[in-house]
Design goal:
- The protein has 2 domains: 12-146; 155-221, no CATH class.
- It is mainly alpha-helical.
- 77% of the residues lie in helices and 4% in strands.
- It has helices spanning 2-57, 61-86, 93-112, 114-143, 147-153, 159-165, 172-184, 202-212, and strands spanning 157-158, 188-190, 217-220.
- Helix 1 packs across helix 2 and helix 1 (2-57) runs antiparallel to helix 4.
Length: 222
């Protein structure tokens, strides 16, 4: 009788452990999803900042600044013409000249501070780079107890199959970055040449990966 009770207790303990493990994995996936959303937003901000840096402080940025200053001259002139026409507002010539001189002076001051503005933007980029890397490392730590074991258990598995198994809760680009860490560590082998989607805008990165996700098959070496 005692042996039966002991067996029942063992079975109950195993069931409880399975339930606890299941609940823990669900929570880990929820935490992983939260960090993935943070990483996704940080990466989007980083891409936007780099686009702004290239636009305003790139190799041809001086021409861009001069062009926008010319546009501002035209806009101010058109505004004054409309005011003069509809409000019957007439300014003496020296006031028009003074207005454009002030506008030019403001442009020169901003242009002289271009280097300082570029440094501030670079600091924001560096901070976002650091935050993105930290968030990705946090994702990898969480993935060690949920995502990676599932990938190794289902190996070989394609990126598309993994995406579908997770019900599309994670972006393809996020999964690819996480799985690449396992590839770099030698625990997974990628049988398809990796798509360079890291520097692409987020939507384009996912679109690019969708075309190759079925061919990107990961095999476990464990």
């Amino acid at each position: 009788m005692s042996s039966v009770l002991n067996n029942d207790q063992l079975h109950a303990k195993d069931i409880n452990n399975d339930v606890d493990n299941s609940v823990t994995r669900v929570k880990l996936y929820e935490l992983l999803q939260e960090r993935e959303q943070c990483w996704w937003q940080t990466r989007q901000n980083l891409i936007n900042l780099k686009e702004r840096q290239m636009f305003w402080y790139g190799e041809n940025s001086l021409m861009m600044w001069l062009m926008w200053q010319l546009v501002s001259y035209v806009l101010v002139a058109m505004t004054l013409m409309l005011l003069s026409r509809f409000l019957d507002l007439s300014l003496p010539l020296w006031q028009y000249v003074g207005l454009f001189v002030i506008q030019t002076a403001i442009f020169v001051v901003i242009l002289m501070s271009k280097g300082r503005l570029a440094n501030k933007l670079q600091q924001k980029i560096d901070n976002d780079e650091l935050l993105r890397e930290q968030t990705l490392n946090e994702m990898a730590i969480l993935a060690e107890d949920c995502l990676y074991p599932d990938v190794h258990a289902k190996s070989p598995i394609s990126l598309e199959q993994m995406y579908e198994a997770l019900d599309g809760r994670f972006h393809l680009a996020s999964l690819q970055c996480l799985l690449q860490k396992e590839v770099d560590a030698g625990r997974l082998i990628l049988t398809q040449t990796q798509v360079e989607a890291e520097v692409l805008p987020l939507d384009l990165a996912d679109d690019e990966l969708k075309e190759h996700a079925r061919e990107m098959v990961y095999k476990s070496t464990l």
